[in-house]
Amino acid sequence: MAHSITRIRVSQAQVLRAYAPKPVISVPSRCHTTEAPRKASWTHPIHTTEQILAIKPSHRQTKNWQDGVALGTVRFLRWGMDLVTGYRANSGHKNTSLRSIMTEEKWITRFIFLESVAGVPGMVAGMLRHLKSIRAFRRDHGWIETLLEEAYNERMHLLTFLKLAQPGPMMRIMVLGAQWIFFGGFSFAYLVSPQICHRFVGYLEEEAVITYTKAINDLDNGYLPGWEKLQAPSMAVRYWQMPEGQRCMRSLLLYIRADEANHADVNHTLGNLNQNTDPNPFAARFKLKDPGGSASVVRN
């Protein structure tokens, strides 16, 4: 008895779908804004209340012409940003004109613009050092990781503030222009003198500490009533691991100010080092000295 044989053609895509592993988390195809919480690429260190409250504005005095160039550039950019965001040094005082008073909306605008620019230097420096390490066929001694972590941290600041307010078309245009100009200018400057660039970022972060300190003072003095009971976004609570009872807007500003102070210290330190041979002291770990040998670097 003859049997007919029917040939079934199965495409490669069908085979792959049949044997592909099932996803652990199913995300609806139409869901574009809701995302399952996951661990951050760089876990933020836990700061104690005493540590974040101890942060005060500080300034590293210039010691050579390179420092002068860096500081002068920062002050010029600070003047431009003050003009764009409507910032005034005495904006919270009762005798200030109505036009220059810094409201919650103006502070958020300033923060968003500041953080959109602050996220550029770490990424540019990390990218250029990454490319240099590849073409030189040698290690970078831990600089790349610290610089990329700084850029990631600044981006988290920006994303946190975007949970509180969304920029309008004009702000988006200004950020686009500032990012395009700053990215190109900083890339060229870092190729010419990375030491000046790290000093520049150190002074820039000093200005950021001053800005957040001023906002905290305005909040403490009652000039920002809309923030007195405002809670930090959930993503900020997870990222900074904010404890219960310390998840308000004031605590958020304190945590961000501590980050900016740390960036200032890191970049001023990197600006003091030999850019080609010195290891990054913030990334290297050392073994304890044993009786028969000396300390050695575990990771750099």
From TrEMBL:
Fe cation 1 binds at residues 115, 154, 157, 260. The chain crosses the membrane at residues 107-128, 173-192. GO terms for cellular component: mitochondrial inner membrane; respiratory chain complex. Keywords: Electron transport, Iron, Membrane, Metal-binding, Mitochondrion, Mitochondrion inner membrane, Oxidoreductase, Respiratory chain, Transit peptide, Transmembrane, Transmembrane helix, Transport. Its main location: mitochondrion. Binds 2 iron ions per subunit. GO terms for biological process: alternative respiration. Its cofactor is Fe cation. The keyword Amino-acid biosynthesis does not apply. Gene3D superfamilies: Alternative oxidase. It is found in: Mitochondrion inner membrane. Its EC number is 1.-.-.-. Belongs to the alternative oxidase family. This is Alternative oxidase.
